[in-house]
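User: Please predict structures.

Assistant: First:
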Amino acid sequence: MLRWGVVVSGFYAAVVLLLLLPGMLLLGARHTPAMDEVLEMYLDGFPLLYAGILVGGAALLLFLSVDTAWRRMQPRRHVAVTAGLASFFAAALAFCVLLCFEVAVYADHPPPLWEGREDLFLATALGAWMSLWMIWGTLFYRHYRDSSSAVSAVVTWLLKGSVLELLVAVPCHVIVRQRGDCSAPFVTGFGIVTGIAIMLLCFGPGVIALYRKRLDEYGENARQRS
């Protein structure tokens, strides 16, 4: 089981680094990016940092599932970590929805309240993300702290959330593309890539959980026959 966790994590890392990051650049650019533009993106700190967070979160959720697969443990040991990870990704989805709505309405310009105050707008955006993280973390922790299937439950919520986020991000991307905005397509492209990445992230723990369930059923059947 542990080996499959490593394999799934490695595959997810390859998809994020080799497909989704160049895809984000392709969605935002006005023309097909050249190879030097792709290499320049890999030298930028933010895309690699964000990819590392996604891959690290996926690996943690996977190994939390693997670690509890062979013994009955109190869920309180891992539920805080699970809630923190799941709420971060839920906050990312909600934040991307807000950003996509913002660029669809205001294009390349910040809302009137932050006109000419880009630093304040960035600080407000970061504060909104942190607030969403705390809200979702509190909800996940309070709801699943006594649950023995916290990982599979929050993964199901994240899968639904990623689908809803894509239903917002894709139409917003079409709007800003047809309007000919300059930087707005990068925002909606970031939203699309985030939604796809979190959707793919959910399949790893889901596959491990199904594999674990099948093994548990085999073990239970063997004990009944004996």
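Second:
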Amino acid sequence: MRHHRNKMKRRNTISKDAVLGLLAETRKAMSHDAVEKKLNGEVDRATIYRILNRFCEDGVVHRIIADDGKQYFAICKKCEDMGVDKNKLPPDNHFHFRCTSCQTIECLPALVEFKVPKGYNVDRLNCVLIGICKDCHR
């Protein structure tokens, strides 16, 4: 029985490494379905779901709700790398871009400024800009 527990724990670590490695390799946000498809059966659907949610809770990845209603997951970057004042907004509060050509979503690498009417205070944001990415535009 003890050997079985160690094997399960090891498999879970391998699964986490596989999901994290995939997100790091693609360097773009991925939906649960896309992660499952890329891993090609290495990790089952329910485990991927649990891993992605745990990564969100731990601040390893952030969740993006796109205009298509799907949830996408991307590795969190440091605020300074995104051009965001870390004292104003958490790192997952930055703009994203969804390409209508290649269907990818990515964190924009620079600060996108916005203004809200007087009297409004922004605590969080979920902004996805939609168009053609720089790679497809070429």
